[in-house]
Amino acid sequence: MIKSLKIRIAITAIVCLGALYFLIPTFISNIPSPWNKYLPKEKIHLGLDLQGGMHLVLEIDTDKALEAMMERTSNDLKESLMDSKVRFRNLEKAKGATISMELTDSAGKTALENVLRDKYPDLEIDSADSRESGQLVTLKINDKRAAELKKLTIEHSLETIRNRVDQFGIAEPEIIPEGDNRILIQLPGIKDPERAKNLIGKTALLEFKIVDDENSLDEALRGNIPEGDIIAYGLHADRSTGEKSSAPYLLKNKALLTGASLETAKVQISNRFGDPTVSLTFNSQGADDFERITGENVRKRLAIVLDGVVHSAPVIQERISGGHAQITGNFTLDESRDLAIVLRAGALPAPVNILEERTVGPSLGSDSIRQGIMATLIGSILVILFMMIYYRISGTIADLALIINIVLVLGVLAAFRATLTLPGIAGLLLTVGVAVDANILIFERIREELRTGKTIRLSLDTGYNRAFMTIIDTHITGIVSAVFLIMFGTGPIKGFAVTTIIGLLASLFTAVFVTRVIFDYIISNFSIKKLSI
Amino acid sequence: MSMELIKPGIHIDFVGKMKYAIIFSVILTVIAIGSVIFHRGLNLGIDFAGGSIIQVKFQKGVSADQIRTALKSTKLESSIIQQFGVNEFLIRTHESFSDHKVLEVNLEQPLTTAFNKDYEIRRVEVVGSKVGMDFQRKAIFAVVFSWIAMLIYITWRFEFRYALGGIIALVHDCLIVIGTVSILNMEFTISILAAIFFIIGFSINDTIVVLDRVRENVKLNPKQKLGDVINMSVNQTLSRTILTSLTVFLTVLALYIFGGAVIHDLAFSLMVGVVFGTYSSVFISCPIVLLFENLQISKMKRKK
């Protein structure tokens, strides 16, 4: 313990003023001009349960990303094998992220290995079975690369979602990775949760594919889909009735161009009905590709496919240079604006699933704040009165420490930008109940010492010293149990644990150090005959 | 004269009443576990079981039955509808509605038909069953590990037999809170879990204070029988135990009365926990220390 009373008073004053300093923006909203430069700007950050908003936990389906990659690789591999004159048949993406094929030559496997070594270092032969007709080979991505790709997928998704949320314009969003493949998103004060959810969760994979008009769509619908084709559906709304129907298309599966080649996307109100459309501008490589593709496919139909849905399939009249295209469809203005955002921000590398969603309306939030503050005030006043009545002046000193404790907790919350939630307020109030425990321990001990006839100063010394280790023990165990709760880590409840921990640490300072300073000050400045305890 | 709830010279024979306390606690614990078994496990909230909660506030008086009628022949037909504050209701279902359209068709449209636009959806929480399972696993781990952490800490600071007494009291308190929740057929939510963690910290606090005193008194009176030392220590710390429990109880009570419906569960389980945490540290943890002491002595005698 520091001996000098002056130094101890100074420490107390500095800590209290420090806490108050960080609380200024929380309690005074408009700080006049020359002063606001020197003051912190952060108010106490309120949790979503208090200010309203949306909490989302997304799971990124990284396996799907690997599968999609293998799908693309299988197409490239076909060409490479043909170039290298390796004879094969039935090469296709198989279950999971694997590629299966049959090699018909006896020397096929060595040739395949050569191709893999030269051009596909990420692939390895998973299994090879000899058959009469040749060898059945399964390829997979090597484990190290697969793990790397999954990690990249998560990072890319995180980046994309951040981008989308930023462009949507939400103040103070929180987007953080959680665990292996989850992303936690907090959007405070959001007014239209549904729209935000669509914006974030949409894969937004834009693809340009040629409509296969050479083969029969009806035949394909009966189940005979030509090799390399797929069936996709487009949504059409009848302009006069507004009824929505879906129409099938037979498409060449290979995407000629994707959203990755976009430079930008924006909303335009262009056609004669005043419907909004999204106009696309390709980057220079994309513009060249688009020109080449349209040139090669004049008179054919080019389908614009977004997340597997055909939005339109206009006939290519002529080679299109300049790198512009348009997505029409029956969008509302909001829908087209959101579509432009997701196209600009880019596609998610993998589909996402919503695992958890919590939305709190602003009115419930403000009710909760009111009730939380009410409970805290009344609870604190009860404890303060109790201490005053039971321990008189000593109790009042403990009360002073208690108030400092509350200020410190709030100050620390503001300084470290921790979040105050409704259970957090409950934790703060509980800290009030628990913080006086240290003083009760000390005071009861002092009373015991006084009863044995010791002097006031000696009784104070013994009381504080004897109780000190017990107080340390009770605080540490309290903190440990709260730490386990933090590990459990979900929004509001985490706030409960956080305020409890800060409160316990603060109470070590206020209930032990600060009260002692006050006692020592009183004893050294006034001649006390009898301790009011 | 200072105010004294417990007079200094008090001497209650806690150790002598140990037998009754243990019988009482065993009965309570059996009832608690029995209730959980009888109800076929806990009534898990959506955080642990997955599902959806929708909180709706009406502008005028509406009954749960009226809402149920309005939701007839929708997907929410078999949901649990419970009053939650003035003109406010919670609609709970085990399905996860992550698609807004489902909510619109099954809730908003029927409610608008029945009550016009005189309502407001104030909260929607949807938890997938996968996350629920995760939470369950994490919760059990966290509770058990916190018990073990306490066991290690007290063993380090005191002795193993002291720690064992503390932990048994702790497990006892947790079981009683869980049992109360089960008997009242309340939902076991994440808030109740938070309360359990607080009780773990609170209950062990009380135990530490008493055990600290026991240790001190053992040093001062090495010749005295442990039973007497324990009795003396519990009596010496009794006023602190009661005063602290009282201040904590006051704050929890304020929380229960004024804190609003959202933290009602938390406040309620805290109240139960504070009462039994206080009881157990006086009547359970210390006698158990003594019980182990006696067991050890009788073992040693047999060896001789």
Structure summary:
The complex is a heterodimer of chains A (533) and B (304). Chain A is of the alpha+beta class and 533 residues long. Chain A has helices at residues 5-27, 33-36, 48-51, 62-83, 108-119, 143-168, 193-201, 217-221, 284-296, 333-345, 362-415, 422-451, 456-488, 491-525; strands at 45-46, 53-60, 88-94, 98-103, 123-130, 135-141, 174-178, 182-188, 206-210, 229-237, 244-252, 257-258, 262-269, 276-282, 302-306, 309-312, 324-327, 352-360, 419-420.
Write the layout of secondary structure elements.
The complex is a heterodimer of chains A (about 525) and B (about 300).
Chain A: H1 5-27, H2 33-36, E1 45-46, H3 48-51, E2 53-60, H4 62-83, E3 88-94, E4 98-103, H5 108-119, E5 123-130, E6 135-141, H6 143-168, E7 174-178, E8 182-188, H7 193-201, E9 206-210, H8 217-221, E10 229-237, E11 244-252, E12 257-258, E13 262-269, E14 276-282, H9 284-296, E15 302-306, E16 309-312, E17 324-327, H10 333-345, E18 352-360, H11 362-415, E19 419-420, H12 422-451, H13 456-488, H14 491-525
Parallel strand pairs in A: 1-19, 10-16
Antiparallel strand pairs in A: 2-8, 2-18, 3-4, 4-6, 5-6, 7-8, 9-12, 9-15, 10-11, 13-14, 14-17, 15-16
Chain B: H1 18-38, H2 46-49, E1 51-58, H3 64-70, E2 80-83, E3 88-93, H4 100-115, E4 119-127, H5 129-157, H6 160-183, H7 190-220, H8 226-258, H9 264-303
Antiparallel strand pairs in B: 1-3, 1-4, 2-3
Name the descriptors.
heterodimer, A: 533 residues, alpha+beta, Multidrug efflux transporter AcrB transmembrane fold, Gyrase A, domain 2, 3 domains, four-stranded antiparallel sheet, 19 strands, elongated, B: 304 residues, Alpha-Beta Plaits, 2 domains, 4 strands, 67% helix
Describe the structure in your own words.
The complex is a heterodimer of chains A (533) and B (304). By secondary structure, chain A is α+β, with helices and mostly antiparallel strands. Chain A folds into 3 domains: 213 residues, Multidrug efflux transporter AcrB transmembrane domain (Multidrug efflux transporter AcrB transmembrane fold, Up-down Bundle), CATH 1.20.1640.10; 84 residues, Gyrase A, domain 2 (2-Layer Sandwich), CATH 3.30.1360; 157 residues, Gyrase A, domain 2. Chain A is 53% helix and 21% strand. Chain A has 14 helices and 19 strands. Chain A has a 6-stranded mixed β-sheet with strand order 11-10-16-15-9-12. In chain A, strands 7-8-2-18 form a 4-stranded antiparallel β-sheet. A 4-stranded antiparallel β-sheet of chain A has the order 3-4-6-5. Chain B has 304 residues and is of the alpha+beta class. Chain B folds into 2 domains: 77 residues, Alpha-Beta Plaits (2-Layer Sandwich), CATH 3.30.70.2040; 173 residues, Multidrug efflux transporter AcrB transmembrane domain (Multidrug efflux transporter AcrB transmembrane fold), CATH 1.20.1640. Chain B is elongated. Classes of the chains: A alpha+beta (533), B alpha+beta (304). Chains A and B meet through helix 7, strand 18, helix 11, helix 12 and helix 13 of A and strand 4, helix 5, helix 7, helix 8 and helix 9 of B. Strand 18 of chain A pairs antiparallel with strand 4 of chain B.
